[in-house]
């Protein structure tokens, strides 16, 4: 079952299924936010935005509105 990146819980690991290339900053794509890559939610800021992820050993902060444009599947559901 696929979910949005913004729906992960801290510690969840997932595989990126799809990204909305129209809405994702190019820098994020260059850092590995691409289909097939593994992503893990490390932290969430106190007011719920931004999220702090580990994408293929790169640590990245992603705003909630951007995280809503990425579809993932949890590793334990594969």
UniProtKB/TrEMBL annotation:
Matching SUPFAM superfamilies: C-terminal domain of transcriptional repressors
Top-level taxon: Bacteria
Name of the protein this chain belongs to: Ferrous iron transport protein A
Ferrous iron transporter FeoA-like domain ranges (all copies): 3-74
Keyword Iron annotated: yes
A Pfam match: FeoA
PANTHER family (alphabetical): FE(2+) TRANSPORT PROTEIN A (PTHR42954:SF2)
InterPro entries per the UniProt record, alphabetical: Fe-transptr_FeoA-like, FeoA, FeoA_core_dom, Transcriptional_repressor_C
KW Flavoprotein (keyword) present: no
């Amino acid at each position: 079952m696929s979910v949005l990146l913004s729906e992960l819980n801290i510690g969840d690991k997932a595989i990126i299924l799809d990204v909305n290339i129209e809405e994702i900053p190019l820098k994020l794509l260059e850092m590995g936010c691409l289909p097939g890559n593994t992503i893990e939610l490390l932290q969430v800021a106190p007011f719920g935005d931004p999220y702090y992820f580990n994408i293929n050993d790169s640590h990245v902060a992603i705003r909630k509105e951007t995280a809503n444009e990425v579809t993932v599947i949890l590793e334990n559901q594969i």
